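Researcher: I'd like a candidate sequence for this fold, 345 residues long. If you have to choose between options at a position, lean toward the conservative one.
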């Protein structure tokens, strides 16, 4: 009965209402345009800065070599940032990803170079290490209830110490050349590592977009108590997010080892801030207000394009840290504003 009443009330009552459908269509059209503008604003700005730097440095910036360098050099950061969005989606932070990446790189190099393990076994060990790190983070945060920032910062510091202990503060070089060639092998002018990063983005996009697991992760992040009351296994979802994040960090370390042919205990520390900047900036694009894979990928290449352009204009290497720091501040602010606007819409 109430449903029928709602239907009757929604019907036009006189001739003056005849214009309402047309106004509604205009409103919907305007809403769609605004939605598209919000989704692809970062892409538009990215294109703008490409055009700008191409005009300022036409001899260097708009060259095939430069674009190959831009797109081919960020696979490690893409993988790390994509892994990071999993705990962020469920409302958790993971500050151990850089250290997990460093330790996995050192372990692969140490097992392969120092102990003579076949590279395949060393890669399996790195994957197992990623699972163990994620499980430790999950145990502390999900099971014991330790604050995620404190727990993962402590775990990251522990992992950094272990990386220094294994490597004895030295870079372990001489990784299996066949593995190095595989990771650096060019396909259409870009290394294999670039396509591996895109493959990970595609998998995560499919999970979030088309599977119940992805929807459950998003629902958990939107409201943990509501998700629990709805019957979702919130603890397992949060624990799984930590584990997959750490496995992705280990994967990033493996890829970096293949790129440089060595394991360095300091290698992952410089990636922590850029990964967070890309994840938060990516949450303002493609699917605004939500951490998402393609937005993260766009954000990574947007950031490196800006940094490369500024460096080609003569700015020193310090501009990279300044740019990433400002990007993180702006990204967090924008993501907060987008969330507030959508909540009040």
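Model: Candidate sequence:
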């Amino acid at each position: 009965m109430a449903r029928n009443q709602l239907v009757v009330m929604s019907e036009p009552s006189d001739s003056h209402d005849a214009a309402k459908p047309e106004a509604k269509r205009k409103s919907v059209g305007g809403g769609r345009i605004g939605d598209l503008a919000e989704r692809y604003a970062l892409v538009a700005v990215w294109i703008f800065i490409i055009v700008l730097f191409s005009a300022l440095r036409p001899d260097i910036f708009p060259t095939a070599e430069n674009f190959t360098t831009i797109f081919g050099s960020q696979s490690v950061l893409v993988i790390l940032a994509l892994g990071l969005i999993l705990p962020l989606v469920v409302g958790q932070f993971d500050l151990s990803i850089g250290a997990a990446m460093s330790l996995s790189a050192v372990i692969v190099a140490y097992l392969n170079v120092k102990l003579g393990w076949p590279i395949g076994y060393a890669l399996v060990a790195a994957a197992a290490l990623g699972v163990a790190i994620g499980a430790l983070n999950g145990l502390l945060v999900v099971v014991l209830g330790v604050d995620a920032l404190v727990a993962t910062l402590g775990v990251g510091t522990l992992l950094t110490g272990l990386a220094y202990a294994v490597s004895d503060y030295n870079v372990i070089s001489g990784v299996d050349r066949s593995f190095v060639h595989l990771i650096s092998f060019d396909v259409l002018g870009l290394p294999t590592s670039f396509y591996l990063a895109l493959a990970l983005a595609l998998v995560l996009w499919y999970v979030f977009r088309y599977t119940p697991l992805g929807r459950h992760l998003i629902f958990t992040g939107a409201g943990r108590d509501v998700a629990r009351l709805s019957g979702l296994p919130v603890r397992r979802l949060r624990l799984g997010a930590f584990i997959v994040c750490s496995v992705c960090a280990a994967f990033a370390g493996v890829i970096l080892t293949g790129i440089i042919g060595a394991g360095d205990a300091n290698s992952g520390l410089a990636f922590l801030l850029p990964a967070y900047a890309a994840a938060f900036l990516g949450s303002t694009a493609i699917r605004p207000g939500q951490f998402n894979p393609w937005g993260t990928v766009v954000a990574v290449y947007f950031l490196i394009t800006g940094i490369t352009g500024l460096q080609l204009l003569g700015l020193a290497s310090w501009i990279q840290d300044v740019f990433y720091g400002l990007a993180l501040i702006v990204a967090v602010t924008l993501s907060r504003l987008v969330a507030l606007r959508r909540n009040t819409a």
